[in-house]
Amino acid sequence: MGGNKQKTKLPADFANSKDWHEASQYYDQYMETRKVHKKRNWKRIVIYIITLSFILCFSLSGWFYLERVSSAEYTAQKFEKAIKEQDVSKLSELLVFPHDSQSFNASQANHMIDYYKKHSGEFVSTVGYLRSSSGIKEERNPDYFIHMNKSGKKWGIFDDYSIELDASRITVQSAAKGVFLYLNDEHIGKLETNGVFAIEGITPGEHVLKGVVNSGEKKYEEIISLNTYQNFDEPLSLKFEELSIVNRKKFLEEDLEEEITEAVHTHSKEYILALESKDIGEFNIMKNESYLERAEKSIVEMKELGQSYEGEIKEIGFDLGSLDFSYDNKRDIYQSNITVSLTFNSGYYLDGDSPDHALRAKNTYYWDYEFTYDENDQHWYITSGTPLTDYQTDNMDVIKF
């Protein structure tokens, strides 16, 4: 047993042995390999950090860029640049005109550029308004015809803005009958005698309005160049100066009887109203100065006597056989005459009393009225009157009330 016993190695023995030498070499290799792997891991980490930094910077830059180019201020800058550089194509693409009747084209863009070149102060004010606008329709300033409009979302994230134009509105009138209207050579409607035609949905800028009247086999045209940047508080008038006096007379004669009888009826009501209210200002159809002076004198006397007037029109007789129509070449006016009878049931009573106390009486007055046609108002007014005792013909039309 003592011969098979293995000798225990001491640390000093192991250090001088071949095993220790091999173990030392393996450890050095292990440590060297570990250093290499550790170095490689740090390189990967650095590469990852740099890559992520680039991605983050690029994403943030892209975000801020997309946010800027989709902002209201940037849209306003594009509008300002297009005007200053006179870029017609860019301007026509940038502006939105939400109406089916017309579109904002290159021609209209040219008109807008010319307008702002001549009105630099308004251009600066408009750009400032667009820059500060929220794009909400309810907050638009009616002093401007161009607005920033928030139209939704771009790319599903950013607000999308556009510049929207208000539509203009123009009214047209003419004394001629049956005027066919054309805007920029496109038929838009028909204007009847003394009527007013409203043209809606017009793009801002210059337009050409044409009126056409057919009289027999002859055609008359009048063309008006208009600019919606100007204010049109009053309707545009198509006068058709080329129409002969004979044709204009014919137009007026067609509705003469109806318009004259209506004017007489209106005057009779104004007569009662003026005396009842003791106000000469109630007369509108009557333009004869001497008649108005006598009426005013009667009102003054009523006030001095403490009287009031109460009356009603009972009957108006029209001597249609006396109806006359003429044209005064020297004064360039149209005139008409007619004999009428006015029957009133009226009376006076003292101020403070009830109108029921008025001593009424029925009285009939005969007048030969002279009417003059006002081209501006397109209305017949009484400019003279001669008292008569009876009608002049038997061709009568009597209206009872």
Briefly, what is this?
This protein is an alpha+beta fold and 401 residues long. The protein has nine helices and 15 strands.
What would your notes on this structure say?
This protein starts with 10 loop residues before the first helix and ends with a strand. The relative contact order is 0.07. It has 401 residues and is an alpha+beta fold. It has helices at 11-15, 18-69, 72-84, 88-94, 106-118, 120-132, 245-254, 256-277, 289-305, and strands at 95-96, 146-154, 158-165, 168-173, 179-183, 186-191, 196-202, 206-215, 218-227, 236-237, 307-328, 333-350, 361-374, 379-388, 396-400. It is elongated and about 145 Å long.
How would you describe this structure in keywords?
401 residues; 9 helices; 4-stranded antiparallel sheet; alpha+beta
**Tally of separate helices:** 9
Order of helices and strands: HHHHEHHEEEEEEEEEHHHEEEEE
Q: If strands are numbered along the chain, what order do they take across the biggest sheet?
A: 14-13-12-11-15
Coarse morphology: elongated
Helix-strand makeup class: alpha+beta
Compute the CA-based radius of gyration: 47 Å
End-to-end Cα distance, whole Å, is 161 Å
Strand content: 25-35%
The biggest beta sheet reads: 5 strands, antiparallel
Mean pLDDT: 82
Low-pLDDT stretches are none
Q: Helix amount, in percent?
A: 25-40%
Write down how many β-strands occur, each being a DSSP E stretch of 2 or more residues: 15
